[in-house]
Specification:
It is built from 7 helices and 4 strands, in the order αααβαβββααα. By secondary structure, it is an alpha+beta fold. It folds into 3 domains: 42 residues, no CATH class; 75 residues, hypothetical protein PF0899 fold, CATH 3.30.2320; 58 residues.
């Protein structure tokens, strides 16, 4: 987004036109006349949309998809934490992260800082005193603000989640210890249940360390 009364960067403008052109092509079978008109209004062209062929899809960049998913989860959790702890959106925070994937967070830090109003990101090895914490996956986050924080509600929420996860883990263990279930279940079903168990155990460990 350009600054106030500043021109749009040509590269960004061209990419935007390209993006909307692709949208018009996808919508064309359902809205042929409207999309054809918009397609030609976006840019001067000689070919019609109705005869334009879809490009052959390239390979999927799973790393980018995973980063986008992580970014969404962290931003959503931070905004939820602000609401629960009465931290105003306009109040900038300092974020401390305990993670084994520092490089991943460094690659998305610019977007994360802008979307969650973070003034500084630090990578630490242990809990930070005087902060409120949250867990995303197996990563721990400690939020520091200029004002004093009452984290009693947040601790209560973490204890409630911990209780739920322990109950969930018991149900998974019962299922995996059932010989009839193990004998009849498909390999992919067993693998999924084992993954659920591993994920629950990892999250329980992270929450217990945060309390």
């Amino acid at each position: 987004k350009p600054g106030f009364e500043q021109p749009v960067n040509k590269g960004i403008y061209d990419k935007t036109v390209e993006f909307f052109s692709e949208l018009m092509q996808m919508l064309h079978p359902f809205m042929p006349f409207v999309t054809e008109e918009i397609y030609h209004q976006l840019k001067e062209r000689t070919e019609d949309l109705m005869i334009k062929q879809f490009e052959t899809p390239g390979s999927v960049n799973t790393a980018n998809i995973n980063q986008a998913g992580l970014l969404k989860d962290v931003i959503t959790s931070l905004r939820d934490l602000r609401v629960k702890n009465n931290i105003k959106p306009k109040e900038a925070i300092k974020l401390h992260i305990v993670t084994s994937e520092t490089g991943t967070y460094q690659s998305i830090s610019d977007i994360l800082m802008k979307q969650a109003n973070i003034k500084e990101v630090a990578y630490v090895n242990d809990a930070v005193a005087g902060t409120i914490s949250m867990v995303v996956g197996t990563d721990k986050f400690f939020i520091e603000t200029e004002n004093a924080i009452d984290n009693s509600a947040q601790i209560a929420a973490m204890k409630k989640e911990l209780e739920y996860l322990k109950g969930f883990l018991v149900s998974i263990d019962k299922k995996l210890s059932n010989e009839k279930f193990v004998a009849n279940a498909k390999p992919e079903v067993l693998a999924l249940e084992q993954k659920k168990k591993a994920d629950a155990e990892a999250k329980i460990k992270v929450i217990e360390e945060s309390l």
